[in-house]
Amino acid sequence: MSSRVPITFDRYLLYSETKEYLHKVAAGYPDLCSLNSIGKSYEGRDIWALTITAGGIASASEKPAIYVDANIHAGEVTGSMAALYLIDYLLGNYGTDTSVTNLLERVTFYVLPRINPDGAEVYLTTPHMLRSSVRVWPDDDTQELPGLHRADIDGDGKILQMRVRDDNKGEWKVSSKDPRLMVPRQPGETKGPFYRIYPEGYIKDYEGEPFTVHKAPWGLDLNRNFPSNWEPGIPGGGDYPAGEPETHALVRFIVDHPNIGAIQALHTAGGFFFRNPCKYDESKMDPQDLTATKAIARQGTKVTGYPDVKSPNSATLTEWAYEHRGIIAYTTELWNRYERAGIPLEDVRDKSDPDKFPGEFEEISLKLLEWNDRELSGKGFIDWTPFEHPQLGTVEIGGWDRKFCVQNAPPHLLEEECRKAAMWIMKHAAALPWVNITDIKVGDIGGCLKKVTAVVENWGYLPTNITNKAVQLKVVEKDIVELIPGPGVEITGKPRHETGFLEGYISGTRSPAKSAVQVSWVVKVSPDDSPPPSVTVEYRSQRGGVIRKTHRLKRTTPGNDRHLTKPDQDT
Ligand SMILES: [Zn+2]
Question: From the CA of 268, how far away is ligand 1's center (Å)?
Fold first, then answer.
């Protein structure tokens, strides 16, 4: 047994630490995993992919596979840690935990914990928030323009909010129930104090109000750069589909690994899974594909508590995965502080808008602050603190910790979130096809001729094509079964047969599924006596894996004609 590589899930690893961990793991478990760079980021960092499977890495491409990536969005670093947790969990429990061991015997995991290493590094080492790529996109280049630019002006390492007293124009007032909470000023209210709220920052070329409040300069969104329903002008979409080095590398990797039938893209925040279809109504999706997508998600809900939600987004990895590759894919939005505070997600979705529902907004916000005081010792909300602003005079800086409370789990709650993700990914992996050669029979048909009959079955939930979409798109080749003769054996007809696809038990609820196939060959066994004759049955399925079984043939002996002989030795 290899010894586990130490890692803790109570902090967020930098790029160098992530890379070091992955290299240690690859060195420590050479029989179970291998590490490869699949390409370089915009700033030249490697994008690492760890391949994990049991039975030798050479077999990885011959098993059905799940692809797991994280952190395409710079700040969604909980996803990175969840991917590392999955790696630690699989490797650390192989050989001792039956479900992990069985899964690694039949499935390959491709895990890419940090696919946007540049963005994550800015997020983790500077006060800045950014959406995704660090490449300043032409439209975003606002840095030299007059107006408010986000910056950590009080030097506490965070970019928070500034509340600025303005009893005339102020849109906000302090809640009477908690002095930290800002609530909207209501029509006709004239008795202040009232405040304006700005992002923390400095104002270039300040000449009094009004001034423009600029967004962060990085608006390019790698997860709107995939070649599915991409169009010019899609917010953050980039210059052309898969035009960024990171997205290009991912598309290449997935296309180059046709055994991938499951995709998990780890994001934050939300506490739900985005699923397909994205652009059109569910009624237009293939019914079996939709059933599978929803049923697998339900298994995820059981282990995470998170529901599935139809995604409204286009040009994402997971939309492309289904629409162009016919792969069942989820964008898993980890972590939700409202959920942790016991506030129903429907309330958050419907009633947390301060303009439309000021009363409900105040109630929800108070519950969040109570949770913050109770569970986070108050650290999730930085109290308003006076500061002499170079342009605005006295302001107060404070607000929610956007990085490690709003967008990501606070460090002491991170491990639980990582565990949920890993359990969900294992459920998804367990739904992949599971092909077995269950029987090889040999019958003597006279002289030196024998009939070899093999039965191949899929014991998995999903069919070997994964989705009907994949068949429609012609992106998956039909399964093939082939008889490979050993020494002293000759096949009299075609050695290879196309078998189509093996259904999974998903399709058999109304009548038994066609999840087995029986194929026969006639072989001629040479009468001389050395070496012992044998045949190998090989079933090749792009998404269901490759499986082989060798069967030793008995030589025909008098009195044994036309009787089916039981397999005497399978290997
Ligand atoms: Zn995201």
Answer: 6
Name the DSSP class of 73.
S
Please tell me whether the overall predicted TM-score, pTM, comes out greater than 0.85 for this model: yes
- The domain limits of the chain are 15-123+221-335+413-430, 142-216+339-407, 435-565
Architecture of domain 15-123+221-335+413-430: 3-Layer(aba) Sandwich (3.40)
CA of 349 to the centre of ligand 1 (A): 17
Cis bond upstream, residue 269 (ω within 30): yes
CB 74 within 8 A of CB 119: yes
- Each residue's pLDDT tens digit, 339-363: 999 999 888 888 889 999 999 999 9
Q: How far is the CA of 275 from the centre of ligand 1 (A)?
A: 14
- The rounded Å distance from CA 390 to ligand 1 centre is 35
- How much distance in Å is there from the Cα of 391 to the middle of ligand 1? 35
- Single-letter amino acid code for the residue at 322: Y
Please tell me the distance between residue 156's alpha carbon and the centre of ligand 1 in angstroms: 26
Read off the pLDDT of residues 8-22 as tens digits, 9 standing for 90 and up. 999 999 999 999 999
- The helix (run of H) or strand (run of E) holding residue 67 is strand 65-70
DSSP bridge partners of 484: 536
pLDDT digits (tens, 9 = 90+) for 280-328: 999 999 999 999 999 999 999 999 999 999 999 999 999 999 999 999 9
Least confident of 160-169, 342-351, 536-545: 342-351
Q: What is the CATH number of domain 435-565?
A: 2.60.40.10
